[in-house]
Amino acid sequence: MSEAFDPLSVAQDLSEIDVSDPMIFKHDAFRPIFARLRQEAPVHYCKESPFGPYWSITRFHDIMAVDKNHHDFSSQGGVSIGNRSADFEAPNFISMDPPKHDLQRKAVTGVVAPMNLAKLEPVIRERAGWILDDLPTASPLIGLTRCRLSSRLRCSPQYLIFHSRSVTSSQLGRILRHPVWQPVARCQMRTGARA
Fold first, then answer.
1. Which residue among 103, 148, 150, 188 is least packed, with the fewest CB closer than 10 Å?
2. Are 185 and 160 spatial neighbours (Cβ–Cβ below 8 Å)?
3. Dihedral of CA 78/127/117/158: which sign?
């Protein structure tokens, strides 16, 4: 990006648009930028960004076509821009391709069905409140990395799945000590959270 680049300008040259720039979200300026991309460049190539070059797909039907085409497009390696260190990676089914993705998704489909989520809404709201209450007020983005491990873990999707299956706290402790869950625990600790 050049120094003259204004992430808030919808009128900028298409080749200058970088939707990975957090400032367009901080200033709530992403809507007109994405609207322009959907209109003029629904498959957009960003040549220069802090994360290197990348493609962005901005129309719903195009996104769905890419998401369903596992032969030409893969989620393996992640679905976000940028690279994480190897010890920060945690296995998750959004970053898997079929058939492994399908097996993992099938295991949680019932839990995240609309009717079950409605039942979990009070728990989800409570856990979200714990996260927000744990943030320092002066710097909320930095605070996200400082949430206590116990608070973050109790708010994780995995915990909600355990909660929906009536897993007790002592059972949860044993489960999280199992080797298959160690990447999740390491990922939680890597945030700099305190136990």
1. 103
2. no
3. positive
